[in-house]
Specification:
- The structure is a single chain.
- The chain is mainly α.
- Among the domains are: about 30-75, no CATH class; about 90-145 and about 210-335, Orthogonal Bundle (MetI-like fold), CATH 1.10.3720.10.
- The chain has 13 helices and no strands.
- It has helices spanning about 1-30, 35-40, 45-55, 60-75, 90-125, 130-140, 145-160, 180-190, 195-230, 230-240, 245-280, 285-295, 300-330.
- It is globular and about 85 Å long.
């Protein structure tokens, strides 16, 4: 298992280098001049402009700038924001818990509905229930996030008044930021109504972000279950007189979960991409909204390092998914 881990870890090195090149090059093609941005409305003389170019290394060849950037990354220096002057890494981890909390709630919602829906659809193959579940999943997968989010806001926040429109908690509550996770901090604060307010603010963003992963997981679970249910060992288990629930839940589901886990790992990238739109729509103060605001402000170090950090998270999650394969099916370790 350790050799399997080292092999998968080695594959991440060229991937990481490729991502650094993409992130470094991406900010260079964005419009605007970072030196003029730092100057703001005050303006710059040509002498001061040239001095700042030299100070920040923008006057050097592009390859020299890249290798300096790579060296800073390896030493843990992700640069400072041009707008706030704060370290990018510090700002990222200040907002990261908000995105993690939203993404976890979304993936839990997607798994708790998507896997049972896929199992039911596979068990009732060809029935009206199967067609209804898969039709609903197709609709959910096809809906644009921004349209779905605005629709839910209009119905449940504007018309019915059941849920808040934006933010993580009502402005009526204030307590120390202990963990960064609003559900935990509001619960341990002991303030009456704070935890309920945090849940109400989380409902709509979680539903919007979970819709596409839920649809994909349901369809993939159905497909994997249909393939497994036709195997010899499943027919043997049925011939032994085992109950349908035991055959499906114990013998079939475990082997069907490998492709489903693959999809769950891939959904991390989808969740982070969807979080950019979801957080913007609901004014959720996570890394998605932070990245969008930084692009509008042309805060190049934030955009550059933010892309790299998000990509690194996806890489780590995919590595964990690969290790999970090896635990579920030992034969994969030798491939």
């Amino acid at each position: 298992m350790f050799a399997f881990f080292l092999k998968r870890l080695g594959l991440l090195i060229p991937t990481f280098l490729g991502i650094t090149i993409i992130a470094f090059g991406f900010v260079r093609v964005l419009p605007g001049d970072p030196v003029l941005l730092m100057a703001g409305e005050r303006g710059l003389t040509q002498e001061r402009y040239d001095a700042l170019l030299k100070q920040f290394g923008y006057d050097r060849p592009i390859w020299e700038q890249y290798f300096e950037y790579l060296g800073n990354l390896l030493s843990g220096d992700f640069g400072n924001s041009l707008v706030t002057k704060q370290p990018v890494l510090e700002e990222f981890f200040a907002r990261f818990p908000a995105t993690v909390e939203l993404s976890l709630c979304a993936i839990i919602l997607a798994l708790s509905i998507g896997i049972p829906a896929g199992i039911i659809a596979a068990s009732k193959r060809g029935s009206f229930l199967d067609q209804t579940i898969m039709g609903t999943a197709l609709i959910g997968y096809s809906m644009p996030i921004f349209w779905w989010g605005l629709l839910l806001i209009i119905v449940f926040s504007g018309t019915l008044g059941w849920t808040p429109v934006s933010g993580r908690i009502s402005l009526l509550y204030y307590f120390p930021d202990v963990t960064g996770f609003m559900l935990i901090d509001s619960f341990i604060s002991g303030q009456k109504g704070a935890f309920t307010s945090a849940i109400r603010h989380l409902i709509l963003p979680s539903i919007v972000l979970a819709t596409i992963p839920l649809a994909v997981i349901a369809r993939q679970t159905r497909s994997a279950m249909l393939e497994v249910l036709g195997e010899d060992y499943v027919r043997t288990a049925k011939a032994k007189g085992l109950s349908g629930r035991r055959v499906v839940g114990v013998h079939a589901l475990r082997n069907a979960m490998i492709p489903v886990i693959t999809v769950i790992g891939l959904m991390v990238g989808t969740l982070l991409a969807g979080a950019i739109l979801t957080e913007t729509i609901f004014s959720w103060p996570g890394i998605g909204k932070w990245m969008v605001d930084s692009i509008f402000r042309r805060d190049y170090p934030v955009v550059q390092s933010g892309l790299l950090l998000i990509a690194a998270i996806v890489m780590v999650v995919n590595l964990l998914v690969d290790l999970t394969y090896g635990l579920i099916n030992p034969r994969i370790r030798h491939n």
